[in-house]
Amino acid sequence: MRQWRVGSISMGITLIGLGIILIMTTFNKSWDAVTLFQSWLPCLLIILGAEIVIYLVFSKKEQPLVKYDILSIFMIFFIGIVSTGAYLLSSTGLLTQIQYVVNAEEVEVSIPTIVEPIDHTIEKIVIDSKHGDLAVEANNGDQVSIFGSFRSNIEDEISMDEAVTINQVEDVLYIRSLQPRTQHGIGNMYTDYDLTISIPGDIEVEVRSFISEVNVDLNKLKANWYVNAAESATFSELTEANVSVSASTDQSNELEVSNWKQESLDNPSRNDLNNEGNFSVTKTYGDGEHSLIFGHVYNIKEISIQ
């Protein structure tokens, strides 16, 4: 006579149930296989407990001895442990992070352009950036234009309001480039902005933070500009310029610029143009009616356009 071993039926029902779950998730993509797999843990315990109770109830022995199918019970507990692990990962948010990292892809998308008209009440523009990927340039118009793109593996679209804020206080217009969204967890999840701010050249400008580039057609500069720190500065349209440029820099006499007055700074001091470089360089274009001052710039380049 065949002997009933507790665990055999439970193992059979478990395999049948898991097979049904896999079939359901294959034909219905909206069902989450991981969630269904997690929910199977209490079912395993119920099935195994029910089998033990049924065996004891229907056993004809006065003192029934429960015999277990060790291999089947081991497989049941293995499946249970995996289900428990999936549940713990899900409840702590780690499972979501793992799924996100596996499915993440990088996108590069343009950000909607902002055009801010400049009226006669604005006499100065102050720029502050929370990230370095920002370029500033001058224009001949009467409006500020902000445009650019972003790279991210977190989100696939972003509004300019999430990247930049613009506020006017009395006669000063404040433009602030915001810190890109970051998400801490497993993997490298990031958003990077690459923005350009085009500013009317006849308005005073103060850049209070480090930025990546300053690209200026010097003949468009009709006001005083100050840049705290920049990775590079490129000057063009030099023949009709009327600007005095001064900066501290790390470049030596082998600059990509010519006819600059250079002075070695043996003891650089932040009190001298806020400089941190090894050289103080100056050059006057035209009569030098307007000034462009850099607290520090790593690279200076002139472009002569014929």
Uncertain segments: 268-275
In whole angstroms, the N-to-C terminal distance is 105 Å
The shape, in one word, is: rod-shaped
Strand content: 35-45%
Keywords:
13-stranded mixed sheet; 13 strands; 36% strand; 306 residues; alpha/beta
Provide a compact summary of the structure.
The protein has 306 residues and is of the alpha/beta class. It contains four helices and 13 strands.
Describe the secondary structure blueprint for this structure.
Blueprint: H1 8-27, H2 33-58, H3 70-92, H4 94-103, E1 107-117, E2 124-129, E3 134-139, E4 143-152, E5 164-169, E6 172-177, E7 191-200, E8 204-217, E9 225-236, E10 243-249, E11 261-264, E12 279-284, E13 290-302
Parallel strand pairs: 2-6, 2-8, 3-7, 3-8, 8-9, 9-13, 10-13
Antiparallel strand pairs: 1-4, 4-7, 5-6, 10-12, 11-12
Tell me what the structure shows:
There is one protein chain. This protein is an alpha/beta fold. The chain contains four helices and 13 strands. The protein has helices spanning 8-27, 33-58, 70-92, 94-103; strands spanning 107-117, 124-129, 134-139, 143-152, 164-169, 172-177, 191-200, 204-217, 225-236, 243-249, 261-264, 279-284, 290-302. Strand 5 and strand 6 (172-177) form a beta hairpin. Helix 1 runs antiparallel to helix 2 and helix 2 packs antiparallel against helix 3 (70-92). The N and C termini lie far apart (105 Å).
